[in-house]
Amino acid sequence: MVGLLSLSLLLPAEALSQTRRRSTVQRRGASSNARQQHNASGDARAEGASRVAGQIKLLSRFLYLYGRITNGFDAAAEASSRGETNAAATEQTEQSKAAVRQNLRNVRDGLDDMELHFRTTPELQRYYTSLAGVAASAADAEEKAAANQFDQAGRALIEVINRLTNVLLEMR
User: Fold this and answer.
1) Which pTM value belongs to this model?
2) Alpha carbon distance 47, 117 (integer Å)
């Protein structure tokens, strides 16, 4: 009889404690979902800002080298006009120009990918309007380089960096 009485006293206590746990878990889950959504939005924005910063760094390094290389193109053109170059030097200059053009295509492709990412990621779409067109500006630089207008192509890339910097500032 005592065993049955003690069992009946323990049973309601267990049932009551289980109810409390369930309600506590449900509350945590609801606030946890809101927190996860906020973190996902912040994570997407941080990842987007990181991509923009990476492109700025890449373009800055590229422009530093680009300026040095295109100065070499100008010097080679002057030497060629004076008849001071040989066929090997001319061939090397043309290979360098082709490599620069290919690198400009790669830059444009990277910017295209970043624009697509911003356009298709809901958390980043509000920044897409500021970012839209940077790949087209890089394509413009690519066209200018194809026409041997390397100085103007470099200026177009500087404008791309300026726009990317504005997007990054907007994302803060």
Assistant:
1) 0.74
2) 11
